[in-house]
Amino acid sequence: MATIGGDRVRDSARWLVQRHRARHRPQPLPAACLPRDIGEAYAMQDEFVALKSRECGPVVGYKIALTTPQMRRFVGLRDSIAGCLHARQVVRAPASVRVADYGRLLVEFEIALLLGSDIPADGEAHAPHRVASVVAAVMPAFELADDLGADYATLASRGLELAADNAWNEGAVLGRPVEDWRAIDLASVRGIARVNGKVVGEGRGGDAMGSPLAALAWIANHLRRRGKSLRKGDIVITGSLVPSQFPQAGDVVQFDAGPLGAVELTVN
């Protein structure tokens, strides 16, 4: 593992990279590397993402985690958190993954948005009805994450570490883009998750932040506060509508989002 020097942000990012490479032998962040506040956590995430981009490609979009009050309380944070998607980890369905490539594979069931133009960082705060105009397509999606065998009983004291660790993101699987989506009430879309044909959960688009467009406005405002912005071609996955699943080798995972279509993942 990385040695601890005088630059907390750099050292923490290097430690996170090496922890992910270890996968099945993860170690907790040393006390000297733990973020002290959310600003420092995102500074660590920026450095971690920059290092990860060398292997996983540039940032091509964003994820939103902790989209419900219950999940935020669970990890001891007051707000949702953002993470980045990397080019080589975003694929089209049908797709397959190997359990052996993760410490512990975590799959979430989401609605993804493809941006048809930039959302500038200047001007007033972004509202859902404003950001809707830049959405070129909508699709069902899986988020692929890796919790590295986290002890969920301790997460209430580790929310800042989760933010620094890019909210555990390891990619996304995207369904077919639906360009003619504006007649669809995204908040009312019903999503059904199945593993090996058995229903494991159901939810609606409004279960994550009230609607996918509200989630998009949240990430746009989050980036705006940090001097960043969403760009044409970015993908935003807007939060899970169904409890997370931990699939095993041999499982087939499906997510049917009604008028938005379905997406499938084979786990080997």
Commentary on this structure:
The chain has one domain (58-267): Fumarylacetoacetate hydrolase, domain 2 (Alpha-Beta Complex). The strands form two sheets. A seven-stranded mixed sheet has the order 2-1-10-5-6-7-3. The longest helix has 19 residues, at 38-56. Strand 8 (190-195) and strand 9 form a beta hairpin. The protein has helices spanning 8-22, 38-56, 69-75, 128-131, 159-164, 212-225; strands at residues 59-65, 81-86, 90-92, 95-97, 105-115, 135-146, 169-174, 190-195, 198-204, 235-237, 252-256, 262-267. With 268 residues, it is of the alpha+beta class. It contains six helices and twelve strands. Helix 1 (8-22) packs across helix 2.
TL;DR?
Helix content is 24%, strand content 28%. It has 268 residues and is an alpha+beta fold.
CATH topology: Fumarylacetoacetate hydrolase, domain 2
Count of discrete alpha- or pi-helical segments spanning 4 or more residues: 6
Query: What is the correct CATH architecture?
Result: Alpha-Beta Complex
How would you characterize the largest beta sheet?
Answer: 7 strands, mixed
Q: Strand-residue fraction?
A: 25-35%
Work out the radius of gyration.
18 Å
**Tally of extended strands?**
12
What general outline do the C-alpha atoms trace? globular
Instruction: Enumerate the strands of the largest sheet in spatial order, edge to edge or round the barrel.
Output: 2-1-10-5-6-7-3
**Helical content band:** 10-25%
Mean pLDDT: 93
CATH class: Alpha Beta
Content-based structural category: alpha+beta
Name the CATH homologous superfamily.
Fumarylacetoacetase-like, C-terminal domain
Q: What are the secondary-structure elements, in order, as H or E?
A: HHEHEEEEHEHEEEHEEE
